[in-house]
Amino acid sequence: MRLLAIGDNFIGKEVMEEGLKELKGYGIEITVREWEHKNLEMLQKDNLLIEQNGPEAVELSEELIWDIEDYDILIVQFTPVSKKLIEKAKNLKLIGVLRGGAENIDCEYAAAKEISVMNTPGRNARAVAEFTIGMILSEIRNIARSHAALKNGEWRKKFPNSGFVPELNGKIVGLVGFGSVGKLVASYLNAFGCKILVYDPFFKGNIDYIEIVDLEYLLKNSDIISIHARLTDDTYHMIGKKEISLMKSTSVIVNTARSGLVDEKSIVEALDEGKISGAAIDVFDVEPIVKNDKILQLDNITITPHMAGSTRDAFINSPKFMRDILARALDKNENLPIVNGINPEF
């Protein structure tokens, strides 16, 4: 059995090889290549194109996939796996993607070809969750704004929320989406003494320190709203103008998930008009942000360049997580993160 793993600027060849090497014990021959970009910015630009337009949006070089028909397993992180590539991969049985989202895989066509697609749920959940807490604190306590002011020689003490700077203890925080990231964020917020509301139609379980509510109730009652849903056709712009109008004038919205979950223009408008207190955003409709974007002129927002999940630990551990998933698949374990409904057949 042969496996082709395609790394990138975040997960290089050596990290990929080290993470997957134990699969050789299953008789798997491993080949590792890299989807090369001049820098991380160029990779992120391609990744955004793929997320917004699908895996056909970026063409791979022939050098990268020239013998794809010889492989049974394909492992990628950001590399697009299009219908064209799948059609060429005559012997492919499984596609593994080293992240939670599978936007870069044509999952529907893979299913039509009886190819299983599996993701790596939670691989950077801790990185995003920790970053989310940092974004919340930075926005409500004006950490980034005061830092920027001091760097410019200003001893700034007045901010848009100066009349109601809060502490987290006792505040109501609404989490939209309660997967791997949402659960970690909730556990951290519980330690701060927050009351936690959760909206997630797919969550089945019972955690004593959260309250499951509908989206309208969450929006109306939360002091802080943090987005952790998966981006699908159904969740696109799930937070739009109507939803923002339900929020308190003193509330803050945080998005470290996907830009498409929130109507960016409506958020900017609400912040500009003072309809909500603030926002903390790590993901944007256009990346990098253009210099004349109105979002850069707002004083009641904390912005970062799509970096929530980018920790060394998250990238290094991803191939190891996939190694363990593949081992379970080869051992015929039923507990597999299959995203397209097709069980792998080896």
Describe this protein's structure:
The structure is a single chain. The longest helix has 19 residues, at 312-330. The chain has a 7-stranded parallel β-sheet with strand order 8-7-6-9-10-11-12, with helices on both faces. Strands 2-1-3-4-5 form a 5-stranded parallel β-sheet. The protein is globular, with a radius of gyration of 21 Å. With 346 residues, it is of the alpha/beta class. The chain has helices spanning 13-20, 40-53, 62-65, 83-88, 107-112, 125-140, 143-151, 180-192, 215-221, 241-245, 264-272, 312-330, and strands at 2-7, 29-34, 73-76, 94-97, 116-118, 172-176, 195-199, 210-212, 224-227, 252-255, 278-281, 301-303. It has 2 domains: 2-123 and 310-330, NAD(P)-binding Rossmann-like Domain (Rossmann fold), CATH 3.40.50.720; 125-303, NAD(P)-binding Rossmann-like Domain (Rossmann fold). Helix content is 34%, strand content 15%. Strand 1, helix 1 and strand 2 (29-34) form a beta-alpha-beta unit.
Write the SSE topology:
Blueprint (H helix, E strand, L loop, with lengths): L1 E6 L5 H8 L8 E6 L5 H14 L8 H4 L7 E4 L6 H6 L5 E4 L9 H6 L3 E3 L6 H16 L2 H9 L20 E5 L3 H13 L2 E5 L10 E3 L2 H7 L2 E4 L13 H5 L6 E4 L8 H9 L5 E4 L19 E3 L8 H19 L16
Parallel strand pairs: 1-2, 1-3, 3-4, 4-5, 6-7, 6-9, 7-8, 9-10, 10-11, 11-12
Helix pairs in contact: 1-12, 6-8
Protein name: D-3-phosphoglycerate dehydrogenase
Keywords: NAD, Oxidoreductase
InterPro entries: D-2-hydroxyacid_DH (IPR050857), D-isomer_2_OHA_DH_cat_dom (IPR006139), D-isomer_DH_NAD-bd (IPR006140), NAD(P)-bd_dom_sf (IPR036291)
